[in-house]
């Protein structure tokens, strides 16, 4: 009497009452083993792809952190070079750099409204360079100044269309 046994895709034939010898399994068992291996590898590929996506998200997050640290380093170097304190916010010196958010922007009207005003040291009729993602994107002249917001007309040779309301932080530099 002969019986077929499969385990992990390997087939063996056992002769009852005799010796055990490897043998070529029938085609249906061989196909089933190949299907099992394909399913196994397919699920492993899915797991690896999921892990890859998670790691890519972490890389993107770290890249943002690196950009922020580079900007802070640039500010510190400028402070050391000019031997003047460079402030990021909450002082009333005209020479400061101010981080703020875009409340509204209309490229057609060249109008920018930001979440910084007198409280962060902006001045009426002051002209500021606009930095977005560590890149100079234009200049703004403050036309209307309130305690916690300001608006002004924008002038730019760069593609300022890349900034939008609620899009993160910008830096205004006198």
Features:
32% strand; 9 strands; six-stranded antiparallel beta barrel; 1 helix; Thrombin, subunit H; three-stranded antiparallel β-sheet
Structural features, described:
By secondary structure, the chain is of the alpha+beta class. The chain has a domain at 98-173: Rod shape-determining protein MreC, domain 1 (Thrombin, subunit H, Beta Barrel). The protein is built from one helix and nine strands, in the order βββαββββββ. A six-stranded antiparallel beta barrel has the order 4-5-8-7-6-9. Strands 1-2-3 form a three-stranded antiparallel sheet. A hairpin with a 2-residue loop joins strand 6 (127-132) and strand 7. The model is unreliable at 13-18 and 85-94 (pLDDT under 50).
Question: Reading side by side through the largest sheet, how are the strands ordered?
Answer: 4-5-8-7-6-9
CA radius of gyration is 33 Å
Query: For the record, what CATH class of the domain at 98-173 applies?
Result: Mainly Beta
At the third CATH level, what is the topology name of the domain at 98-173? Thrombin, subunit H
Percent of residues in beta strands: 25-35%
Gross morphology:
elongated
Low-confidence regions: 13-18, 85-94
What integer is the average pLDDT? 76
Structural class: alpha+beta
CATH superfamily of the domain at 98-173: Rod shape-determining protein MreC, domain 1
> Which percent range fits the helix content?
25-40%
N/C terminus separation: 94 Å
Topology pattern, helix = H, strand = E:
EEEHEEEEEE
